[in-house]
Amino acid sequence: MTQLRLAVRNLLRAPRRTLLTMSAVIAGVGLFILGEGFVSGLTENVLVSAIDDTVGHVLARPADYPLQFGRHPVDRLLEIPSEARALLDQRALAWTERTYFAPIAASGSDSLRAVGIGYDPVRDARVFSRKHWQVVGRLPDPDAREVTISARLARLLSLSVGSPLVLQVRTHRGAMNALEVRVSGILSTHNAGLDLFSIFAPQKLTRELLATELSSHLHVRLHAREQAQPFAAELAPLLGAHASVVTYLDETADLIAMQQVRRRALDLIMLILMALAAFGIANTILMAAYERVREIGTLRSLGMTERGVLRLFVLEGALVGVVGSLLGAAWGSLLTAHWAEHPLDFSQMLEQTGSNVSVSVLLYTQPSLTVAALCIALGSIVAVLASIFPARVASRMSPAEAVRAP
Length: 406
Fold this sequence. Notes:
Strand content: 15-25%
Shape: elongated
Radius of gyration: 31 Å
Largest sheet: 12 strands, mixed
Number of helices: 14
Helix content: 40-55%
């Protein structure tokens, strides 16, 4: 306790220098916790968006179906045999069919290529979450020629609730078809991909447009997402070679790989900041040792051993690391916890860039006590290791020479 009091007093002798040395630890620990919260949150965002908005846990579509946004052929659609339907009814929490198509949406003299999503009004809501959906107006009447369109599409075509809209499509057999529909609602799903140029049409209207009873996609929600891979392996043989069966992990593999790159970049930044903190702590302890030569000599004359002097200076460095790590963990964890409850809304930025990536525009961070504890431990260990060399320099000073020092 005596050495602890001496260490605290010595650090408070030069508070500005101590705070400046500590700032690198505070920044490094806090930024790493915050960055890890963002990376983990974005990774979970990608997975949850795929499950809740576009994929489900398991997805089946025609083999060799194009993956480019806006390309949604309907010449080869998905047939679901009775054996597959039996498996879905027995093992899945819910399942639904969707038909993706690419109509030309026309209003007056304006027209553009949109992405149509034909859905079953009852089944679809059991597979895909709608907790972030915001509808101006209402969802379409399943038995009427009504659609819900994205806010961006409504703005580009100057449409409002109740406006007429002409949809021109190529049918399943290659003929051209066009129907006039009415906009029942303007929808924001808070998913960047779905909110770009999407038109949600009830299944009955979609089948009338495409002149077919078949669908292009089968979406399955299971009781737990860990069941996705085994279930996909069981479903694939029942659908046959004409179908491709994937999971939400397969669909998000590229985006998750990008997150791993971001995590490695974050680790590199943390390494650089900790290295700067280590040099700062070593320099501070070394300067303190040379400034307190006479004090060291007095302590040694009063009976403090070389090991005691070593322990005193290491303790000073450890205090800088521990306090700095605690302060860094505090501000980093507080911000991470705040954004975990109050997400950042990137809807305007993603809309301006025209992003078609299927991720939620609401970014939640993901707090982790484990990460915070590891950062505190790392900051403290770095501080102790950085203090050893200057502490050895101080401990090896000769008492007689130290006392005679000016």
